[in-house]
Amino acid sequence: MFHWKKLKKEDIKREVLAGTTSFFAISYIIMVNTVILAEAGMPKELTIFGTIFISILGSILIGLVADAPIVLTTGMGVNSFFTYTLVLSLGLTWQQALAASFCAGIVYLLVAFTKLSKLFAEVVPKSLKTGITVGIGFFLVLIGLEKGHLIVRGEHTFLQLAPLDNGLTLLTLFSLILTVILFIKGVQGSFFIGIVVVTISANFFGMVQPAEHFSLSRIGNYSRIFLQLDFSAFFSKSFLLGVFALSMILIFESMGLLKGLMPDADEKKYLRAYRVTGVITLLSSILGTSPTVAAAESATGIEEGGETGITSITSGICFLLALLALPLLSYIPDSALAPAIIITGFLMIQQIKTVHFSDFSDYFPAILMIVLIPFTMNISDGMAFGFVAYPLTKWVGGKKSELSLPMWLISGLFLLYLIVNVLI
Question: For residue 417, is it within any domain?
Answer without folding.
Answer: yes
